[in-house]
Amino acid sequence: MNYKLPLNILHVADLHLLSARLHDKGDALHRISLQGDGKVLPYSAEIVEAFTWYVLRQKPDLLVISGDLTFNGELESHLDVVEQLHRIQSGGIPVALIPGNHDIAIASAAAFLKGSIRSAPSISEPEFLELYRAFGYDRARWRDPASFSYILELNDGLRLALIDTNTRLAPGRISPATLEWLDRSLGEASAQGETILTATHQNILVHNEKFTRGFIIDNHLELMQVLDKYRIRLNLSGHIHLQHLALTPEGLNETATGALSAFPHLMAHVTIDEELVLQYRTESLNVSGWAAGQGVADPNLMDFEAFSSQYFYGISALKTGADLLQDPSLSEPEVIRMAEFAAEVTRAYFSGTLHLLLQDPQRHQGYRLWEEKGRHLRFWHYLNSFLIAPLKNENELRLSLRPKP
Q1: Residue 295 belongs to a domain
Q2: Which of 3, 62, 133, 348 stands 20 to 30 A from 124 (CA)?
Q3: In a domain, 299, yes or no
Q4: Which residues pair with 280 in a beta bridge?
Q5: Over the stretch 97-136, which tens digit does the pLDDT of each residue have?
Q6: Where in the sequence is the domain holding 313, given as residue range(s)?
């Protein structure tokens, strides 16, 4: 690779594709979806098809995918993802990716057909490499033998390190062998005066105090020490399904790009100019535009933004409503108003737009009702975790990749 600057990267995470051959959009999948976090599983294949359509029209210089390619590592789902990625690369857009924690050797891989759930084959680590070798690995200048980590040389002065923390021997953490490899490789790049950008699936920095266990890399402090040693300024991540920017005046910053599989189906445009200033901004995938171009008649796809928004809202409202109904002191109108507020806030928070909804929480009627009636309930604690830091636009960032002097 020898990209000229400005360089345009498209970054996404958490596709969570479930092959259409593994479900019939029926009751079994509906039950699983209601237990989930807002992933639009019945239309996950269509979302990825629309994404391919978008990428081929947009033509970024490079597509980077930070893991969780499939719902639960199903072989059939991986085959569908690979088919779409081959289409993208055939269109002249290189792809670089790493696995997530839902991609390899997943015991819960399943099919959801005729109202029942049955086991489906997953894939092994060698099978993952065989399937995805063409998407970054065969262009890597440096490969880690202990994981799926590798480094791409984007041009003479810029490298992208994709760091895997989802191997069988070190799930959710970076192994000592990989840490040593990374330290050595980044040291070589730094000695040559090169600028380094990194990408992971799980997060390195804290994006919410309630979302740490299972979300942050277990030994993230060790990884941070290595990245800080070489004065790396930005890591691109996903996993948490939250659109959020963890920013520090000096040292490492991190973007958590929201899940492509859930409302508002975000993609991040990452542009690096000649001065090594990086601009990050998100955009929602226009699934309805793809559907119109394909002549699709499904009404949910024809107005997918409204459908998906309500889908996320409905799941959030049901979960909070179930907790509220356990409290006999709440009237039915209060339960409805509090569940509606919780769903609205959760949707905005995970979209990175809570600053638009709650400019002054204390003056919002829904917040005051929760403060008065719901302080003992789980959502109240989540709500206040959303508000610990000053609210900001989580969808845009401008940052120099040059280390601070």
Answers
A1: no
A2: 62
A3: no
A4: 270, 397
A5: 999 999 999 999 999 999 999 999 999 999 999 999 999 9
A6: 305-386
pLDDT digits (tens, 9 = 90+) for 13-69: 999 999 999 999 999 999 999 989 999 999 999 999 999 999 999 999 999 999 999
* 2 within a domain of the structure (yes/no): no
205 and 270 belong to one structural domain:
yes
Largest CA distance in the chain: 67
Report which secondary-structure segment, H or E, holds 98: strand 95-98
Please state the length of the chain: 405
Q: Extract the tokens encoding 227.
A: 């990245």
| Together in a domain, 377 and 241 | no
**In CATH, what number is assigned to the domain containing residue 203?**
3.60.21.10
CATH of the domain at 365: 1.10.246
Rounded Cα–Cα distance for residues 264 and 253 (Å): 23
3-state secondary structure of 111: strand
Nearest to 205 by CA among 222, 217, 197: 217
DSSP states of 55-91:
HHHH--SEEEEES--BSS--HHHHHHHHHHHHHHHHT
Q: Within 13 Å and on the Cβ side, how many CA atoms surround 275? A: 5
Residues 323, 282 share a domain? no
Alpha carbons within 13 A on the beta-carbon side of 303: 6
- Helix 365-373, helix 332-351: angle, nearest 10: 120
Total structural domains within the chain: 2
Residue 62's identity, in one-letter code, is: L
Q: What is the DSSP string of 178-234?
A: HHHHHHHHHHHHHHTT-EEEEEESSBSS-S-TTS-TTTB-TTHHHHHHHHHHTT--E
286 and 311 co-located in one domain: no
Same domain, 253 and 358: no
202 and 344 assigned to the same domain: no
* 348 found inside a domain: yes
CA atoms of 193 and 261, how far apart (whole Å): 38
Q: What is the pTM of this model?
A: 0.97
Are 64 and 115 in the same domain?
yes
Distance from C-alpha of 196 to C-alpha of 262, rounded to nearest angstrom: 30
